[in-house]
Structures are given as C-alpha cells and as structure tokens.
C-alpha cells in the first residue's frame, strides 16, 4: 500500500507539472544555454516540495480562509507574465543573441529571482499543490501512506525539473543560430501572453 501511495503521488505530481508553462519554458531556456541549471532546478523543485508538503499536511484551508488571495495572485501573475512575454518578443524583434550563442545569461541571482517569480506569483501552483494534491492526499490516512504519497509527488518535481534542465542540452544542436533563438523567444512570448490571458479570464 505504501508503494502504491508513493506511485500515485509521483504520477499526480508529474501530470500536473508536465503542462507547458512559464516556469517550464524558463527552465528549458536556461538549460539550452547551460547556465545556472543546477541552482535553477533546485529552486523550482524545492519550491514545489514546500507547497506539496503544505498541501499534504492539510494547509489547503489557507486558500479558503483568504478568498481574495486567488484573485490577487492572478492579477500579479498576469502582470508578470505579460511583461516577461513582452521582453521575449522584443528580444526576438531585436535579434541580438550573442550572449545565448556564446552560452551566457543573466547572473545567478537575477536568474533565481525570475524563477522565483514564475513559481510564487503563479496562482495555479497553489491550486495544484495546496488544493488538488492536498485534496487527493486526503484519501490516504494521516500515516505512512499519506507521507508516501507526498514523497512521491515531491520526487516527481525533482525528476521533472532536473530532467528538463539537463535534458534541454539535447536540443542544443538546433539552437546554433540567432534565427532559432528568435523562433523560441516568439513561442515563449506567445505562451506567456496566453497564460496571462487565461489568468485574467
């Protein structure tokens, strides 16, 4: 039963995080230029781990106690996504990718700050972790099985982010031109704006 609970947690967490989102796109982009990948993946996975743990331990009631929180987070998240999307589209318009082609990026702290914003300003992450994962975990008694479920969900985040961050280098051979980076930035910009619109809808 403990193994089954752990596998359920892993499958649940992996399926929720698999969808293409702002955080995943950012990790992919950093993985392509191989800059700050370890710390970026660690930040994203650890953030998920904290939220999943809170959800499994029953703190999902925080959202119910603060009914305005989802709306506030939606507006803040949409604003951030819109600005970041505009930055990527502007970068594609300028077409200056000397840093990317030479494998350089912003500094470590700037990179982590951007990733933290993608994570903590996304209201969906609270619904997925505190809400959905927390709700699914209640089908297990507050004992070893529920903890196994939580561990499985946390493990899925670490597997996903480190797999995405370090697996991105497999795409490196096709990212050797400014044109390829322009296409990627246009796609990321469109995804950011689509996500922002979804948050406001």
Describe the protein in words.
The protein is built from 10 helices and no strands. It has helices at 2-17, 22-33, 37-56, 61-65, 69-94, 98-101, 108-120, 123-137, 144-167, 178-200. It has 201 residues and is mainly α. The protein starts with a helix and ends with a helix. It is globular, with a radius of gyration of 18 Å. The chain has one domain (2-200). The longest helix has 26 residues, at 69-94.
Derived structural class: mainly alpha
Can you write the helix and strand succession as a string? HHHHHHHHHH
The tally of beta strands, per DSSP, is 0
In whole angstroms, the N-to-C terminal distance is: 41 Å
Mean pLDDT over all positions? 80
Indicate the percent of residues in helices. Answer: over 70%
Which parts are unreliable, with pLDDT below 50 for 5 consecutive residues or more?
A: none
Instruction: Report the radius of gyration as a whole number of Å.
Output: 18 Å
Strand content: under 5%
Query: Sheet with the most strands?
Result: none
Shape designation: globular
Number of domains: 1
Number of helices: 10
Brief descriptors of the model:
0% strand, 201 residues, mainly alpha, single chain
Give the topology.
Blueprint: H1 2-17, H2 22-33, H3 37-56, H4 61-65, H5 69-94, H6 98-101, H7 108-120, H8 123-137, H9 144-167, H10 178-200
Helix pairs in contact: 1-8, 1-9, 2-3, 2-9, 3-7, 3-8, 3-9, 5-10
Sum this structure up briefly.
This protein has helices at 2-17, 22-33, 37-56, 61-65, 69-94, 98-101, 108-120, 123-137, 144-167, 178-200. The chain is mainly alpha-helical.
């Amino acid at each position: 039963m403990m193994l089954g609970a752990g596998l359920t947690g892993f499958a649940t967490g992996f399926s929720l995080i698999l969808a293409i989102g702002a955080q995943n796109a950012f990790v992919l982009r950093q993985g392509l230029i191989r800059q700050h990948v370890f710390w970026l993946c660690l930040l994203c996975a650890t953030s998920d781990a904290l939220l999943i743990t809170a959800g499994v331990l029953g703190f999902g009631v925080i959202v119910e106690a603060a009914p305005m929180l989802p709306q506030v987070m939606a507006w803040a998240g949409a604003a951030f996504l819109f600005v970041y999307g505009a930055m990527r589209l502007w970068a594609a318009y300028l077409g200056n990718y000397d840093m990317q082609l030479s494998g350089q990026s912003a500094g470590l702290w700037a990179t982590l700050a951007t990733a933290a914003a993608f994570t903590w300003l996304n209201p969906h992450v609270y619904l997925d972790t505190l809400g959905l994962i927390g709700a699914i975990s209640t089908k297990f008694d507050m004992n070893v099985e529920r903890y196994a479920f939580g561990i499985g969900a946390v493990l899925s985040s670490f597997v996903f982010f480190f797999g995405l961050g370090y697996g991105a280098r497999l795409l490196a051979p096709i990212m050797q031109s400014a044109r390829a980076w322009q296409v990627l930035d246009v796609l990321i910009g469109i995804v950011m704006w689509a996500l922002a619109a979804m948050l406001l809808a």
